[in-house]
Amino acid sequence: MVGGVVVLIAINGGISVISRYGYSKIMIEVAKRIMRKKNLSKKEMFDKIDSYPITKSLKARVKSEIEKC
Fold first, then answer.
1. What pTM did the predictor assign?
2. DSSP state of 49
3. Helical packing angle, 56-68 and 42-50, nearest 10°
4. Stretch (H or E) spanning 63
5. Which of the chain's ends, N or C, has fewer CB atoms near its CB within 10 Å?
6. Can you give the pLDDT at residue 61?
7. Distance, CA of 40 to CA of 46 (rounded, Å)
8. pLDDT, tens digit, for every residue of 5-64?
9. CA atoms within 13 A on the CB side of 2
10. Do residues 10 and 18 make contact, with C-beta atoms less than 8 angstroms apart?
């Protein structure tokens, strides 16, 4: 029972972050961090983004933000 309460609190924290920043902004920042951490080129990161299970429009938005970097 206590474990269930902890899970609900964790889910609520995640939801509040998503609602504050927006899903697309979070995806963009995560992609940028992955790119920096793993020293990926833009081409390699674009290939990685294409493999993500997200919408085509979100993929395009993430790619355009990475292109600006």
1. 0.66
2. H
3. 170
4. helix 56-68
5. N
6. 92
7. 10
8. 777 777 776 667 666 667 788 888 889 999 999 999 999 999 999 998 989 998 999 999
9. 0
10. no
